[in-house]
Amino acid sequence: MLFDKDGMFRLDELMAERLTFRKIMEDNIVTDEEIEEQSCLVIELLKKIEETFLPEQLVQVENVLVEFGVLSAVYQYKQIQDLHF
Description:
Layout: H1 11-17, H2 19-25, H3 32-52, H4 55-84
């Protein structure tokens, strides 16, 4: 489930449970190779979705991914902004 009983998005919890995340973070150092491997995995998963989902479902996935990207970008920008002001 994406949300807990209180309606909170469980992304951090779901990521922490993921073997891929635990493997990357086990030494507390993130390498370029680990980022490359994770990028390839994400691309592979997206291609599988593109092959199997209906067009309407693809639009929903695209919207979620793009808006999550927007959220991530503006959150990072806000953190940088807060450091300088």
